[in-house]
Amino acid sequence: MSESLPTVPAKSSAALSVDPLPVRPAPRTSASRPNGELPLAAGRSTLPAYALGSPYALQVASRITQSPPPPPDLREPAASHFVYGLTLPSATATPLIAHEVADAVLDVHEVEDELVEPALELVHELAIHACRFTGAGEMIHLVLRRFDGVLQVMVHDTHPPHLNSLLAGQCAERRRVSLTAVRELAERGGGECGFAAAHPPAAGVCTWASIGHDLVGATGAGAAEGEAA
Q1: What are residue 206's DSSP bridge partners?
Q2: 42 or 145: whose pLDDT is higher?
Q3: DSSP string, 99-151
Q4: Nearest 5°: CA angle at 48, between 47 and 50?
Q5: pLDDT the model gives residue 10
Q6: Of 23, 47, 86, 210, which cross-links 196 as Cys (Cβ 3.0–4.6 Å)?
Q7: Whole-number pLDDT of residue 202
Q8: What is the rounded distance in angstroms from the CA atom of residue 8 to the CA atom of residue 10?
Q9: Residue 228, pLDDT score
Q10: Could you tell me if 16 and 8 are in contact, meaning their C-beta atoms sit under 8 angstroms apart?
Q11: CB count, 10 Å around CB of 223?
Q12: Sheet holding 82-89, edge to edge
């Protein structure tokens, strides 16, 4: 990407500068849990189970074609469960477009008012983050999902993990700085955030954040190792 991306005129807008990343005040620290896990505000060190299933655009086609095709979901939109995916270019308009589409989704599903603004901020900030790690002409993929009372936002960028340990450490720290606003939003919303190598067949890195209550089922035994944001 270029050295910097101009500011996106959206709610809670932030400059899309890439080098260096904008540094915000460090969030207040939380004590570790008795069992040694990272606090939810700091993010878990495993890829959540909901992130293991590849986004629609990245799924491998089935070897068996059903005939006739299965019907679509004909249920009325509900606030308790939904999943939407967006594939967008790495560009200055992308965070604003993602924000507006997410606003429409939350409105149609009549999501609780107290979750709408934090969710839109998460979408906007994670779209900015993914664009920082995706080159011009390449695409990011963003997923907005509600399940088990938890609202989750996940993005895939195209910047793969480094094999060199020194470069990997530097890149991970760069990602953590880039996710400062996301981490703060997740902390205030009682959720978590983090990132890890994308689960095949997806490539690059998957970054996730959640807000809501009772994160039961947000992580699974088969999760892949990742980084706390």
Answers
A1: 156, 196
A2: 145
A3: HHHHHHHHHHTT--HHHHHHHHHHHHHHHHHHHHTS-TT-EEEEEEEEETTEE
A4: 130
A5: 43
A6: 47
A7: 80
A8: 6
A9: 62
A10: yes
A11: 18
A12: 82-89, 139-147, 150-157, 205-212, 193-197, 227-228
